[in-house]
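Render Alpha/beta hydrolase in 3D.
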Amino acid sequence: MKTALVIGLISILLVAVGVGCTNLKATDVLNFVLPTGQYVLKHATYGSQEWQAMDIYLPKTTTDKPPIVFVYGGAWKEGDKADFAFVAHALTGLGYPVIIPDYRRYPQVRFPAFVDDVADAIRYAGQHVEELLGKPLQGYILMGHSAGAHTAALLATDRHYLQARGVTARLVALVALAGPYDLTLDDPEVMPIFPNADPQAAKPVRNVYPGMPPVLLLHGADDERVSPKHTQRFAEALKQAGVPVEVRLYPGVDHVDVIGSLAAPLRMLAPSFEDIKAFLDKNTG
């Protein structure tokens, strides 16, 4: 049943893309069909370099909920903040402001420049809260998928990135989807991006500390891009440190399904949206 629905949806997307719009991506079509009336979209640049910009999505209804900083994936080599409007649509629907930063990527930069960029985006948001968020930045949530989950997890576990930038807002929670938390640094794809990286600096599993905020880890059991073992190892490190952690391993779900299922038309792919909602309801009020 699920396979038939997915094939049908993909067929609709392909037809839409093929009608005189061959340069469109599936995310373009998906974002196009989602209503935008529930949020106000703002743009900001947090640095002087290409890709140092971010989109800010504000729910139209007044909310006291902390903003979610979402870091997209793309193997540290590709991606665009505009592609993930569907994530903002899902989360603003729950009442959360959403910040999606672009960041520099390989081969323009190497580790840790892209982590620095996301940290700089958080600092900028904190320095311009009235303009961007309309309220003080007292707390925030980190969320990411794939390589973006690795960056979000590093920011949550290695406090020096944000402390060095004077960020005083409290990290409320971490939601990480399908990330390589125990990064294989000698992998041919990884080595050029993390040249001679210290495992202590590059692996979130090495930097877990007691007192971290609650963590939700989601992963597809059929993920062939990033092994679910990364989530299992990260969860074990968090548990050993006494950090509250919830793990959801989804049978029949792959690397894309786990994030694509946040989009309203694709929620039959995986229960990611409902599990994130329940986690945030419990840990952010």
